[in-house]
Amino acid sequence: MRHSPLIVGPRPDLAKLSWMARMLRNCTSERYKVNKGRMVRLAEYSRDCLIALREETGIVYADRQKGTLQLFRTQKQVDAADKDIAVLREGGVRFELLDREGCLAAEPGLRGAAQRIAGGLRLPGDETGDCFAFTTALAELARAAGVAFRMGVSVRRLHRSGGRITAVETDEGMIEGDAFVVALGPYAPALLRPLGLRLPVYPVKGYSITLPITDASRAPQSTVMDETYKIAITRLGDRIRAGGMAELRGFDKSLPPRREATLHHSVGDLFRGAADHSDSSFWCGLRPMTPDGTPIIGRAGADNLWLNTGHGTLGWTMATGSGKVLADLVSGRPAAIESADLGYDRYLPATARGRTRPDSLRPAHG
Ligand SMILES: Cc1cc2nc3c(=O)[nH]c(=O)nc-3n(C[C@H](O)[C@H](O)[C@H](O)COP(=O)(O)OP(=O)(O)OC[C@H]3O[C@@H](n4cnc5c(N)ncnc54)[C@H](O)[C@@H]3O)c2cc1C
What we know:
Elements: E1 6-8, H1 14-25, H2 29-57, E2 68-72, H3 75-91, E3 96-98, H4 100-106, E4 119-123, H5 131-144, E5 155-161, E6 164-170, E7 173-176, E8 180-182, H6 188-192, E9 202-212, E10 223-226, E11 231-236, E12 239-248, H7 257-270, E13 281-289, E14 296-299, E15 305-309, H8 319-330
Parallel strand pairs: 1-12, 2-10, 8-15
Antiparallel strand pairs: 2-4, 3-4, 5-6, 6-7, 9-12, 9-13, 10-11, 11-12, 14-15
Helix pairs in contact: 2-3, 2-8
Flavin-adenine dinucleotide binds at residues 154-155, 183-185, 187, 206-208, 232, 243, 285, 287-288, 309, 311-317.
């Protein structure tokens, strides 16, 4: 495809090949159901936590509570939604399967693209917002509550002694602590490898553009997910952000104009005349992706070492719930949702599960 949603870099790379093989093993209906079920559980809980956080703190981040719409351009895509719907039903998630008219009623800005729409799956309970505004505001709240942030400091390694982490070594010295949480996204495996942990987290690159809205009546109301190109087009106040694509190319952070063109194509095709395409900013990021799509949350490698990574394409969606689950576990409280199947243990052979000794921490594959 000229505007492909998936790009695999040609350079052979053992980590990439091993990750892809494990990912492919998860591409069965049975595994999909298990993995999607875990993610829906965590995402639903996260939304509850986010609503509670908003009520408690009044945090503002261009948030909108207008649902999201997965847009299908072909009947084949409409039919394939059956699998998603089964999982949504099982998880008790509200949804609406819409025809073309239904899509236009939910997102009137799509009028100009009506002929290209076959249908859509709307999740009325979904929310959207500006992640940068959210994290910045959250950091301020955390600071006021006594959290010290050390920006621009690099973690070099963890020191372990007698089954416990004693300190984290940084480029600005050692930091001691009672408990340590690794949340380094795709960089987590490198830090944990010397401890015998083989985290199957690979950087999956994505791109986004942000454009000023010039005609609000043609712009999205909320988020429209263009299923054909796997691009999410979101309204952020008076801007549109379009993000997506999955590129497997290691830690490369270059910005090829071809990828930018794909994002412009999707936005222009669905929301013609909504935004100024000549005034856009282009960005890329590396998503920390596990081969089963589910993040890794829980204790591993030492009595006081905790992991919170591998959230892939849904890091913000699952953020508040992941944080809450982890805070509960670190504090010795039971988490409000089932969390045993979110841990690193699921990658270990059955005989090694539940142990934290370094020599038992070899995953079953790769
Ligand atoms: C284009 C694009 C669009 C996306 N859209 C969405 C979306 O709509 N909804 C959604 O839920 N998710 C989305 N995501 C996914 C989301 O961004 C990720 O899941 C999320 O950022 C993962 O968060 P994280 O904190 O685990 O890792 P990261 O965001 O990768 O953060 C890890 C941090 O650790 C730091 N770090 C790494 N190594 C070290 C070290 N040695 N010392 C000190 N610091 C270190 C890094 O600098 C970084 O700040 C999108 C991603 C991309 C690329």
